[in-house]
Design a protein that fits this description.
The chain is 16% helix and 49% strand. By secondary structure, the chain is an alpha+beta fold.
């Protein structure tokens, strides 16, 4: 009987202690997945000075998977095709994209910019990639929501 009471008491302690553990996940947010551009910000050097929303069917999608990045942009007002493919690395605060190839319009940019470097603000279902000037002040950002 003492053994049964001891086991019941031990089980009660174990069950009650699980209530004191945190239910929050300590997993860091990941870039892995599919993201859609929500809007863009212009900065005055410190603060957001203007918000550009997607209009007239404009869409931009990025897919991050296993160190690779693919993005595409559709704008009914732009006759150029826009897409690119390459690799990416990120830390908690930075995102680097190295595009290997892309559309004709994008290749002219890829030929002059080897690595696209951004400040990164990453949450579970939202991220911003922020372009900084030479002094480290924000100039422009693209803001994405996770769609997959």
């Amino acid at each position: 009987m003492k053994k049964i009471l001891g086991l019941v008491f031990l089980m009660l302690i174990l069950v009650s202690s699980t209530n004191f553990t945190s239910s929050k996940s300590h997993v860091k947010p990941s870039m892995e997945g599919t993201w859609e551009l929500v809007n863009r910000f212009h900065y005055d050097g410190i603060n957001v000075s203007d918000t550009l929303k997607n209009i007239n069917g404009y869409r931009q999608i990025k897919i991050y998977s296993k160190g690779k990045v693919m993005w595409t942009r559709y704008s009914p007002d732009d006759p150029n095709e826009w897409y690119g493919y390459g690799t990416y690395t990120n830390t908690q605060n930075s995102l680097d994209e190295r595009l290997e190839y892309g559309s004709k319009a994008m290749m002219t940019i890829i030929d002059t910019v080897q690595v696209f470097k951004f400040e990164l603000h990453l949450e579970k279902n939202y991220y911003s990639q922020i372009t900084l000037d030479a002094e480290g002040h924000p100039t422009f950002s693209e803001n994405y929501k996770r769609i997959d």
